[in-house]
Amino acid sequence: MRDRIILVEAYEILDSRGNPTLRTKVTLENGITGIASVPSGASTGQNEAIELRDGDQTIFGGKGVLKAVKNVNQEIAPEILGMTPDCQAEIDRMMIELDGTSNKSNLGSNAILGVSMATAVTAAKSHNLPLYAYLGGVGGFRLPMPMMNIINGGEHADNSIDLQEFMIVPIGATTFKESIRFGAETFHALKKIFLKKGLSTGVGDEGGFAPNLKNNEEACEVIIEAIQNAGFIPGKDISIALDAAASSFFNDGSYNFLKSGLGEKKTSDMLEFYTRMVKKFPIVSIEDPLEENDWDGFSEITKELGNKVQIVGDDLFVTNTDFVKKGIHKKAANAVLIKLNQIGTVTETIATIQLCQKAGWNYIISHRSGETEDTFIADFSVAMAGGQIKTGSVSRGERIAKYNRLLEIEYELGKSAIFGS
Ligand code: PGA
Ligand code: ZN
Prior knowledge:
CATH superfamily of the largest domain: Enolase-like C-terminal domain
Shape: globular
Helix content: 25-40%
Largest sheet: 8 strands, mixed, barrel
Mean pLDDT: 97
Distance between the termini: 41 Å
Low-confidence stretches: none
CATH topology of the largest domain: TIM Barrel
Strand content: 15-25%
Strand order of the largest sheet: 5-6-7-11-12-13-14-15
Bound molecules: 2-phosphoglycolic acid, zinc ion
């Protein structure tokens, strides 16, 4: 009986953008505790579970999360005291029921997710297992291929780049450790190029550089140059992945390349743009190429490019089984971006992953642009064995924390570790 939950508590901390978020702690009678911190997005999908913010403009510009904290301490905690942390599905189900809405707007997805994640962390500890082994069982041995976001644009940087993320994927690396080295060396080579061109080497929200470039092509061109300068072969050692986050520049029926001043584009222009980019550069993955309501457009681009490129739905699917089911039916993509806070519980996130596995779709475990030093997703990516993770550039502590945790896991697994998908 000593593994019963005796305390569930939350408090406000800061995320990597300096905005409040929740840290949640679960304590067992035997003294074991598990802690988790909740991330927060900027280019959020319309159908994401609702992050509860206080809205009091005099405190943290309305972004305080004290209501969510109170919901953990006063609403959720009494319901789960006395339960064991092994009952993840039961605890998650109870919180969903207690909230009573379809988008967790009552208690807040941030309140619910904090408890959900901290419950899993506590359970792992009480079984004396690392989190990846608790969540993944004997299947938890696959290290993910990182998609490293080395040029930031869109809503993640104050520069002239419209697409949100230009990532490098070290496809030629044979271990996770090697993939990190490939990424870091390319990141440094890229910095030298920007310095030489007299461009800014300041970084954006996810740790990638955020200079003012002419257009999206130039971002890919400098990345290719950096890959080569670092001694790698583009397309063989390192490829490129894009996250357009197209909803963030879609307005009144057209895609407005406002930041770069390239003007308005129709859906057909966008399709032509991606086809051109894929021809010109070694691109292996494109996320949210179109806005999140254009299911037919997604089906079209998947039909055109899906046999050679991974087409990923992020805002389109919001880690929600209902939307992923629709996507599978409509062949609207071939991969799903997985963000725990888009749906709000560990159990529901796993259900979405299981749906992907059943459909033979890829899935990528992902951070948010607003993060903390929490490393839950590193363990989660190994446990879910999908072989891909998106957790930013090789700069900024909150991104490095995940990479360092993955390096630790690979070290711990030793020869049993398998890398990539
Ligand atoms: P967000 O960005 O966390 O700001 O939503 C990440 C992404 O779009 O993948
Ligand atoms: Zn995205």
